[in-house]
Amino acid sequence: MVSLSTKPLLLFCLIISVTSGFCLLSAFAELQLFKHRIKPDGSLNFLVVGDWGRKGSHNQSRVAFQMGRIGEKLDADFIISTGDNFYDDGLTGVDDPAFDESFTQIYTAPSLQKQWYIVLGNHDYRGDVEAQLSPILRKVDNRWLCLRSFILNAEIVEIFFVDTTPFVDKYFIDPEGNTYDWSGVLPRENYISNLLKDVNSALKDSTAEWKIVVGHHTIRSIGQHGDTKELKDKLIPILKENNVDLYINGHDHCLQHISDKHSPIQFLTSGGGSQAWRGTAHGIDPKEMKFYYDGQGFMSVKINRNEMNIVFYDVFGHVLHKWGTTKQLVSEF
After folding, report:
1. Does residue 2 have a pLDDT over 50?
2. How far apart are CA 215 and CA 118, in angstroms?
3. How far apart are CA 163 and CA 154, in angstroms?
4. Helical residues (DSSP H) of 52-174, grouped into ranges
5. Helix and strand element counts for the chain (H, E)
6. Residue 266 belongs to what H/E stretch?
7. What letter would DSSP give residue 38?
8. What is the pLDDT of residue 3?
9. Which of 283, 318, 120 is nearest to 214 (CA)?
10. Cβ contact 196:163 at 8 Å
């Protein structure tokens, strides 16, 4: 079903799946808003993986196996994909066998049969973008939920998914022989301006204890691609102004955690879903660099009202890095 959903919430809740606690809230505006229930104890656990769609090759299947194992251990509520879902050039259409070969047949563990919330990466834009966004794929595999930009409300946390590929100048100026599907994006300036306004407005309206933003491209990174200047210029001021706790991305095929000297925001890269080992690293202030691993893996996020814990895992399921933080709750009278 297609619905124009956003904040503020003005209409109704359409239950898509009772068992998963996932529903679509319909309202007037641009960003669709989805809801996901937290556990009875007030907690929420989810996994994050990016840059994965290679029909099981480049250790994609091994990463998927460990995701299944950790997902079962944590009782994961859902999975987030940070984009580049199908290499090298996205999907050719809704009937492209790559969807089954890179997604349905790979993430087969019982713990991964949960809702997947998915953004597009630059490689996805090289194919038929509308295919990945199509409700037809949701009928093929009901775990699949891919939109350009949207909001997930899980009571204690709101997660804002942002379509970052149209921000990057080089894909328009020097596409290096690649063809991008910009249908739905042009005129680009209007698209970016409206998206930034929508994200800023939604973040300001959010009353969740935690705010997380997910995009494909890096904002801060020491990996091969490094920082994304366009996002540093246009998106990071909005994140800082609205007290965002985490920015989670893929794009660089690695795992990393970078802090910010001027705000509490943490920059987390989970782009190790398949091909990695780029062997490239840029310099950064060592006080900001918390963790970097140039290899395959994924991450988990565990949240309750006053505590958040992040764990990075490698392709063998070994814990590489842990980080946690707390928030003091304000009593309401």
Report:
1. no
2. 9
3. 20
4. 60-74, 98-99, 129-133, 135-140, 170-173
5. 8, 17
6. strand 266-270
7. P
8. 32
9. 120
10. no
Query: 36, 216, 225, 253: which is the annotated catalytic residue?
Result: 225
Cβ neighbours of residue 333 closer than 8 Å, sequence gap 6 or more: none
Residue 186 identity: L
Indicate the pLDDT class of residue 331, thresholds 50, 70 and 90: low
Burial 217-256 (b: 16+ CB within 10 A, else e): bbbbbbbbbbbbebbeeebbebbeebebbbbbbbbbbbbb
**Predicted local confidence at residue 284, as pLDDT:** 80
Phi, psi of 145 (to 5 degrees): -140, 105
Please confirm, yes or no, whether 225 is among the known catalytic residues.
Answer: yes
Give the up-direction half-sphere exposure of residue 119: CA atoms within 13 A in the CB hemisphere.
Answer: 30
| 12 pLDDT higher than 90 | no
